[in-house]
Design goal:
single chain; mainly alpha; Membrane protein; 9 helices
Length: 259
């Protein structure tokens, strides 16, 4: 998992940088990913020739992910291409992960020296994995959720750039902030062994969103200018359910990798 961890650190930081949505942020993301991968690999002592080759090839997949997902979020088309680029890159790294060097280097020496909480000194490989999953769940998972919504039509592809009519996201505010917080809480509680408490977070979200979903059914159409014509409870419910399940699956998959 060492190669995958290092790549996800670079991908997560790149997605954080381009979250601004500006063209400059997009170009910066293409620079941040390889820089973060190189620095992380150097600090963890993962720089043998198989590591360099694998991470170099993986960065091509990362660049494809950044470019394709950025275009899809701009025009709403070809969402599956971006998802496939990320999935194939991650699968390839896991498939050949036996050739990765054991993490150590300056990171390992610092962990052995630092008096971190816990009864045992954390292993560099685990530190890299946890850091990678946290960064990935903050920004990259948001992109995945949006791409899936575009792929199934819960977000309307022809209205992404300048939506002429309301989108379901207009009804459910704060999703881009609540999603990362929710995933990090699930991941943190799961790592602490409180899986039951993590399930309460999932249940609480449904209860808190229910009034907004219900209101979308009452406020669709009509002469009231504050209402959303053409946007009914079915649209908002589909958006909420699909987006939530993709977000939860991402968090649970991260927890499975971390454990």
């Amino acid at each position: 998992m060492t190669w995958l961890s290092i790549l996800l650190i670079g991908t997560g930081l790149a997605d954080l940088v381009r979250a601004t949505g500006s063209r400059r942020g997009r170009m910066a993301a293409h620079a941040v990913a390889p820089a973060a991968v190189a620095v992380t690999a150097a600090l963890s002592g993962v720089y043998a020739w198989p590591d360099v080759l694998a991470l170099g090839l993986a960065l091509l997949g990362c660049a494809a992910w950044i470019e394709l997902s950025t275009r899809t979020q701009a025009d709403g088309r070809h969402a599956l291409r971006a998802l496939a680029a990320l999935a194939l890159t991650a699968t390839g790294l896991v498939a050949f992960s036996g050739g990765a060097s054991t993490p150590g280097g300056p990171l390992g020496r610092w962990l052995a020296w630092a008096d971190l909480p816990g009864t045992e000194t954390p292993q560099p490989a685990r530190v890299l994995l946890i850091l990678a999953l946290v960064l990935f769940n903050v920004a990259s998972a948001n992109v995945i959720v949006r791409l899936v919504l575009l792929a199934i039509g819960a977000l309307r592809p022809d209205q992404v750039a300048a939506p002429p009519v309301p989108q379901p996201a207009d009804r459910l505010k704060g999703g881009r902030l609540l999603g990362p917080m929710e995933r990090l809480v699930i991941l943190g509680l799961g790592l602490a062994g409180e899986v039951g408490a993590a399930s309460l977070v999932i249940a609480a979200k449904g209860l808190l969103r229910f009034p907004e979903i219900q209101a979308s059914g009452r406020n669709s159409g009509g002469s009231d200018p504050t209402r959303a014509p053409g946007l009914g409870i079915d649209d908002v419910t589909e958006y909420f359910l699909v987006g939530s399940f993709v977000s939860w699956i991402t968090a649970l998959a991260s927890l499975a990798l971390a454990r």
